[in-house]
Amino acid sequence: MGAYILRRLLLMIPTIVGIMAISFIVIQFAPGGPVEQVIAQLTGQADSADQRLSGGGDLLGGTGSDEGSKYRGAQGLDPELIAKLEKQFGFDKPPLTRFGEMMWNYSRFDFGESFFRNTSVLELIKEKLPVSISLGIWILIFSYAISIPLGIRKAVKDGSTFDVWTSGVIVVGYAVPSFLFGILLIVLFAGGSFYDWFPLRGLVSDNFDQLTWWQKPLDYFWHLTLPLISLSLSAFATTTLLTKNSFIEEIKKQYVVTARAKGLNQRQVLYGHVFRNAMLIIIAGFPGAFISAFFTGSLLIENIFSLDGLGRLGYLSVINRDYPIVFATLYIFSLLGLVVSLVSDLIYTWIDPRIDFERRDV
Q1: Contact present, 362 and 11 (Cβ < 8 Å)
Q2: Residue burial 344-362, b: 16+ Cβ < 10 Å; e: rest
Q3: Strands of 62-137, DSSP E
Q4: Where is the ABC transmembrane type-1 domain (predicted)?
Q5: Which residues neighbour 360 within 8 Å (Cβ) at sequence distance 6 or greater?
Q6: Minimal CA–CA distance to 240: which of 344, 138, 153, 341?
Q7: Terminal C-alpha separation, the chain
Q8: Total domains in the fold of the chain
Q9: 120 pairs with which residues across the strands?
Q10: Could you give the 3-state DSSP secondary structure of residue 120?
Q11: CA separation for the pair 14, 22 (Å, rounded)
């Protein structure tokens, strides 16, 4: 097992370098970079531009031209200003040099500072992390608490009326995107067109610090109700069907027939023999499910419900071309994904020692 873990750890290096390299190359061809963002602000507010720039009178000359410039809309701006902007954002260096420096810094978890927020990227991530963690943890708790008992029940009642109508509900829930369901909930219950029962933004109320100890958790879950319902749909459907199929496969095996022949009842067979083997894939997939709920599912929901988490931070950073935040979150998410994949394999071997990854190709 030690050799397998070492191979997986070593393979993480070229994998994450490849992910970052592809993203870096794509960014080079994406229009509207940080320099263009500043240029757009300057050309869009020419009357006050010199007031916002130190020495603006020297930099905003009327003789500038965008002929030969690689930045669209640079007319009227002195080339010296463009050069200063390039140096400020690090674009005065060749792309290969910038990529090499970025990866060296990231290997030491030095993510630099945001282009437009005047604070370190790591501090921003730490600040937004609790919101995303809250969503991820509660989604898993709710989805697993409902999906596993329901999946077992569907496996036992396979083909029955209960199985058919619950499958229909699950398929519809899985087919509807979580963000569309979130919009529907806002329209119905957050003051959209009908009822105004739930808040539309934030994780807690503005007067949260003034609430009593028992009012604080109520306020917290009051704000989380609609986002959690929206996010739980896809996770609920996937885990339920996975549990059902896993139990059906185990129920058909010979050891279950033998257990029943010994006179064991249905409950003893299910929870004394089938449960451990059937839950192998569910338990081993828990880290991956958490990462999925933590990072991917919350992106649109955080924006719809104005929750200031990592999903919203990443979205706004892409819109504003705040590349240090974009690349840092991508690096962290990719690294966590690779680590979680390894942890899932180790959980497999812990639950079932018969699994030996060292005899398989990585």
Answers
A1: yes
A2: bbbbbbebeeeeebeeeee
A3: none
A4: 129-344
A5: none
A6: 153
A7: 12
A8: 2
A9: 113
A10: strand
A11: 12
The answer to whether residue 115 is domain-embedded is no
Label residues 1-39 b or e (16+ Cβ within 10 Å = b).
eeebeeebeeebeeebeebbeeebeeeeeeeebbbbbbb
Q: Do 292 and 153 fall into the same domain? A: yes
62 shares a domain with 189: no
Among candidate residues 49, 73, 107, the one where a domain is terminated: 107
Give yes or no: residues 171 and 285 share one domain.
Answer: yes
Do 128 and 102 lie in a common domain? Answer: no
Question: Quick one: average pLDDT of 236-241?
Answer: 82
Which two structure tokens, joined as six digits, stand for 31?
């229009």
| Distances in whole angstroms, Cα of residue 23 to Cα of each of 27, 71, 275 | 6, 21, 43
Tell me the pLDDT tens digit for each residue of 61-105.
Answer: 343 444 445 666 556 566 777 778 777 777 778 889 989 999 999
Q: Which two tokens stand for residue 135?
A: 């969503």
With cut-offs at 50, 70 and 90, classify the pLDDT of residue 55.
very low
Decide if 315 is inside a domain. yes
Percentage above 70 pLDDT, the chain: 81
Residues 6+ apart with CB under 8 A from 343: 287
Q: How far is CA 16 from the centre of its chain?
A: 17
- Domain contains 209: yes
- Let me know whether 51 and 170 are in one domain: no
